[in-house]
Amino acid sequence: MSHADLHRPLYVPELLANALGQTPGRPLLQLADGTGYTVGQVRDATSRFVQALRSLGVARGTRVGLLSANLPEVLFSNNAVQLLAAVYVPMHPLGGLADHQHVIADSGVELLIFDAQRHGPRAAELAQRCPGLKLVALGESPLAPDLCRIAAGFAAQPLEAPRVEPTDVIRLGYSGGTTGKPKALASVQRTGLATLQMMMAEWEWPRDMRFLSCTPLSHAGAAMFLPTLLRGGSMLVLPGFEPVAVMQAIQQHRINAVLLVPTMIYALLDHPRFGEFDLSSLETVFYGASAISPARLKEAIERIGLVFFQFYGQAEAPMSVTVLRRAEHDVNDPRRLASCGRPTPWVQVELLDADNRPVPDGEPGEICVRGPLVMEGYRDNPELTAQAFAGGWLHSGDVAVRDPGGFLRIIDRTKDMIVSGGFNIYPREIEDILALHPAVSQAAVIGVPHPKWGEAVTAVVVLRPGHSTDAEELVAMVAGRKGSFQAPKAVEFVESIPQTPVGKPDKKALRAWYEKTN
Fold this sequence. Notes:
single chain, alpha/beta, four-stranded parallel β-sheet, 17 helices, 25% strand
């Protein structure tokens, strides 16, 4: 052993191999149909998938795409890609054909693993449109060999982690695409390890964790697997998010931790059967990915309990730039409930103005980040990378104010800010006011071109089941709190607000829809 290896950190592939090698009889995964896997069974399945993927030509650096619903084989595939030092390229199961095609072409995916039951037609379209793309299925498919069958032909071997370096690319992720085509960004071993360490240290995990996974395992759902494994917990995997199934699972399995995005929390609260289920086992509801309405968060705390833990980050600096702990959720302070918390001690965070100068408390500034959590840059896009790293900081694109206690409150995305009649208007503040109305389930505010004002404030609103209101009442409500210049010039009532693949309101799609229908 060289002296350099004496103090070399262990990266995620080594941690994964080590953790799967311990307590083989402990239950780890459970599916909705009752199927269960122990740590040892997950270890052996991972070994077989490593050998199966290697037989298909996957090696260090191979780009492997994955398109699937929530299946245990998603975790086995993900583990195997890491242990082969290949590059994982997740593709959101709810994404559109154009975005999927863009991800494959842009990232150079060589092998696409797809869920035969749910994504066969999409895989066929992608194979047609992406010359040279190789397919392998999870399950029987006329399009490609079955990866599960290939894996079953191998005998499980001890897991061996590859030697990796801090800047080796582990994952090619894509931004949500709210302002254009999704952008490729490289997560490296350094950021993977930092993300895990910060989650382990800063997140409030139950002691005897029974975690419910209902978000996509190809994305944020999989980020919960290794912490669950390392903390000796177990994970119940649902095929996806469906309010009644989630509440039934929490009650039946005494689930004490779950990861939800705000729209999922709203769907639970608004479901007519909410009161039928015992959710008292919940100790931590992790939530993030998009802004939550303070009014709806207060309602959730009053109806479920003081169990909510917010994490704030973005693909460029994932999961733990700031956190708002359970006890910091003060239901009597709407500004605190609008906060994304305080920076974790592992990163440097500043609010900067347009000239990269820090702003005082109470003044809007862009959240800018430094530290090991920050991405290497946008792949093959030095111009965009230089723009994101201007002044030696990662510029998040989120505008926030800081209170004297150090809590940050995001007031909007820089690109979502509306300029109307020469005034800067932040949609997030108007959305929070609209959500105070008892009839409003969800609201999104956009700026649309206007010949006089430049942009006109437009609200798109989803009503709660069985409730009603009208545009005049909502406009008056905003005008009373923010002044008439910030009140919506139009209110559109809709059944649902489009979401990006990562669960954020898709304002680009909303603007396109409004332009088409008006």
